[in-house]
Amino acid sequence: GENVEQHPSTLSVQEGDSAVIKCTYSDSASNYFPWYKQELGKRPQLIIDIRSNVGEKKDQRIAVTLNKTAKHFSLHITETQPEDSAVYFCAASQMIKAAGNKLTFGGGTRVLVKP
Amino acid sequence: DSGVTQTPKHLITATGQRVTLRCSPRSGDLSVYWYQQSLDQGLQFLIQYYNGEERAKGNILERFSAQQFPDLHSELNLSSLELGDSALYFCASSPRGGGGGYEQYFGPGTRLTVT
Hints:
Chain A has 115 residues and is mainly beta. Chain A contains no helices and eleven strands. Helix content of chain A is 0%, strand content 53%. In chain A, a hairpin with a 2-residue loop joins strand 6 and strand 7 (62-67). Chain A is globular. Chain B has strands spanning 5-7, 10-13, 19-24, 31-38, 42-50, 53-57, 64-68, 74-78, 87-94, 105-106, 110-114. With 115 residues, chain B is mainly β. The model of chain B has no long low-confidence stretch (mean pLDDT 92). Chain B starts with a strand and ends with a strand.
């Protein structure tokens, strides 16, 4: 089955700096890669996703890049703000018609933005 | 607010007991997914239902079962509870099982504590 590795496990940045989180996946059939943000005691919130036919996607201060050949994808947060402090999870899934698209999650990255 | 609702928010019960967790998906979503989040195992996929039928299964214990009803709400039944079953249980929903509408939106979770 799919295995997703996520690094680093913790990341501390100064407000205004950039943060980068990297994930690798094992199953070359995976073709959908979402990122979730989870604040303490709350639900995981989808913040951005990318499909395998796209190499990069951007939404305001966050961007995701995908390298299918190397089987890795990354989340980039620019101009970090204290409210970006949370745990971020990457995930991988295989979109198959008439089948399930269960998400396999990485282990999470705890991001702390210091004011 | 994702539009996915879960009840109860918290559940405290004893070992050996049985509990039922309930989830209502977003309006119009046909797929329901159950995930378990624990400190040592991270976010793990348990099971998916699509329009009333089981669609995909993860490492769900035999003591756990689920179903999706005609009104599309889902219930996760956990029996013969053990201390290790203490975790956050999330439900997520998406428009379809596969082939389109892959985004999964998570409910607020049910925190289960087994004593």
